[in-house]
Amino acid sequence: MTRRVPKFQRNPKPWKTLGSRKLIDLGEVKIHRDRIVSKTGFRTDHLRLSLHDFSIIVPVLDRDRLVFIWNYRHPIQGWELELPAGLIDYGESPAIGARRELKEETGYSARSLKRLGWLHTLPGISPQRAHIFLASGLRKGSVKREPYEYMKVKILSATEAYRLLESGGIVHSPTVSALGLARKTLLG
C-alpha cells in the first residue's frame, strides 16, 4: 500500500495582493502588512511573518531508543521535551541543517538521514516550513551549542516517547508532528 501525501495547492488563489509594506525587520524575523483583495472585492490588511525554515530530527539511537532534549524556552518561562531542531542557515539545504543541528544540540552525528516530509508551522501568518528527518547510525561526539541554548540530552525508548506524546507530556508542536510522521517507522 502506498502512502498518500497531500499535494500542496497553490491554485486557485481567492486573494490578490495589492501591495506589501515591511513593518519590522529584525534580521531573521520580518513582519509585513499585505493589502489584499478577494475575488468578491472584499479588501483587508493581512499581517505576514517571515521566518527561516528549520529542520527537526528524529534521532534513533538504536533499535528502539530516541534522543530528545530538554530545552529551556524563554517565551514560556519553562522547559520542554523536544526533538533536536534548528533554523536552516542561508544557502544550506534542510538535510545539511539537520545534520548540523543534531551535532550541535546533542553531540551525535548520523550515518544515515531519511527525509520524512515537511509541514507548515503557522500557515495563517507565515510560509515557514519544518523539514523532518529520521537520523540513524548515531555516533556520540561533543555538543557545540550556542551561548543562549540551555539544553539537556534525554534518551527515551520509542514506547515511552509515544506514551508521553499521547498523555500530553510532549507539547512542543514540531516534535508532536515529527513523531506523528515517524510513528509507523518507529513502532511498525
Write the layout of secondary structure elements.
Layout: E1 15-25, E2 30-38, E3 43-50, E4 54-59, E5 65-73, E6 78-82, E7 85-87, H1 94-106, E8 108-120, E9 129-140, E10 151-157, H2 158-167, H3 173-187
Parallel strand pairs: 4-9
Antiparallel strand pairs: 1-2, 2-3, 4-7, 5-6, 5-10, 8-9
Helix pairs in contact: 2-3
Low-confidence stretches: none
Radius of gyration equals 19 Å
CATH class group of the largest domain: Alpha Beta
Profile the largest sheet. Answer: 4 strands, mixed
Number of strands: 10
How are the strands of the largest sheet arranged? Answer: 7-4-9-8
Helix content: 10-25%
> What is the domain tally?
2
Number of helices: 3
Give the amount of beta strand, in percent: 35-45%
Distance between the termini: 14 Å
Order of helices and strands: EEEEEEEHEEEHH
Structural class: alpha+beta
Q: CATH topology of the largest domain, anyone?
A: Nucleoside Triphosphate Pyrophosphohydrolase
Name the shape in a single word.
elongated
Give me the CATH superfamily of the largest domain. Nucleoside Triphosphate Pyrophosphohydrolase
Question: What is the CATH architecture assignment of the largest domain?
Answer: Alpha-Beta Complex
Estimate the mean pLDDT confidence.
Answer: 92
